[in-house]
Amino acid sequence: MTAALLCALALLAGCSGGGSGSGSGDGSDKGRRPSGAHVAIRVPADAPTISAAVSLARPGDLVLVSAGTYHESVRIDTARVTLRGTSRQKVVIDGRLRQANGVVVAAPGVAVENLTVENNTQNGVLVTGSAAAVAGLPGSGGYDTGDEPVTLLSSFLVSYVTATRNGLYGIYAFSARDGVIEHSYASGGADSGIYVGQCKPCGVVVRDNVAELNAVGYEGTNASGDMYVVGNRLVGNRVGLTTDSDHQEKLLPQRGAVVAGNLVADNQQPLTPEQADGGWGIGIGVDGGSGNEFVRNRITGNADAGFVITASADLPPDGNRVTDNVFAANGVDVGWTFPHATRGQGNCLQGNTLRTTVPARLTTTASCPLPASSRSPSGTWTRPTAPAGIPFTDVAAPGPQPEFPHATTAGATLVPSAPELPDTARIALPSPSLLAGGARVRIA
């Protein structure tokens, strides 16, 4: 074969053959693609930037990124690509507050593993089937996609990722289903550290993550059906966890999430970004969400309330079950409050360890099971004044986090078409010892 023909064939992969790069750039330069059925494309050895390497990848390939700080926004449009850092601490995608997203996953079966994303004006990692979301999320809330039809991206994995100091969400799965967010750390999220929105049925599992120093640790909005939040450490945010219905997103109302085995503690941290809704000192909040199960969570040290059910619009919270949780040292352990005409029905409690409820005697008057039509009572309590927040850019930097095992030697990750869903009966109550230090929750 002639040299001219070889070069012509090689144009698809960049005829120059590529080479090493500085670890920064806009991804416009392409290197060479190594031969083979499924390959590891190394950055910067085989391509100068992460974006250039991703553009060379075919389904089943691994993009393996060496230590460095990469000033680029990486978009993955090829299915079943694995993007992995060789070091979670030392592979950093830094937006320098000049770009919306660190990593955008817009294709099915993609895994993002073992790296840090920081200083993006919107999201650290965005996983979405929404073209409008990829284009920049119109709307002041960051998630209103207008008249765009709902298209759910199916199958994803975000694992061993550190997402810190991002202007909306650290890890954001929006209009996406059948995926897992695990073993990750989120801090400094100006809205929330981890967010799942607009999916029905979701088939999403959020497990064994740490969220701290965010406005909200975890938020699920219009995220319904086979939606599991299990075994996470949600400590030291302004609000630990919320599940809610919101007209700014489609597929409302929210219903059918399972929140089990989480440590939800001390969510009264002042050195956090202040969310627009102004929440502070709350462990778990339900706003217009229905049919959710809250099972064997340890909820402690939240200055306002451990668990709140409310409705802020025309969407009532109905049929939520709060069972076998342990509450301690909260302002109020369980509070139901409906400041507007909208009132929930069929919400109930059973088997919890707690001290105070508002209204009083909920453990008797709202004991499970209840008729679905049983109207939920409303009460009020003296609520602490939220301190002023700080800019998300000023949140403390995270310490070292656990590394992906065998990051440099393992092949590409095969992301299943749907994750195995947890058996709630096997998820244990977190131990009180986990309140100390940065100990992680482990799922049984």
UniProtKB/TrEMBL annotation:
Swiss-Prot/TrEMBL keywords: Repeat, Signal
- PANTHER family xrefs: F-BOX ONLY PROTEIN, F-BOX ONLY PROTEIN 10
Does Transferase count among this protein's keywords? no
Q: Which segment of the chain is annotated as a signal peptide?
A: 1-18
Q: Which Pfam families match?
A: NosD (PF05048)
Mind telling me which residue stretches traverse the membrane in this protein? none
Which residues belong to any copy of the Periplasmic copper-binding protein NosD beta helix domain? 164-334
Which top-rank group of organisms is this from? Answer: Bacteria
Query: Which SMART domains does the UniProt entry name for this protein?
Result: PbH1
Which protein are we looking at? Periplasmic copper-binding protein NosD beta helix domain-containing protein
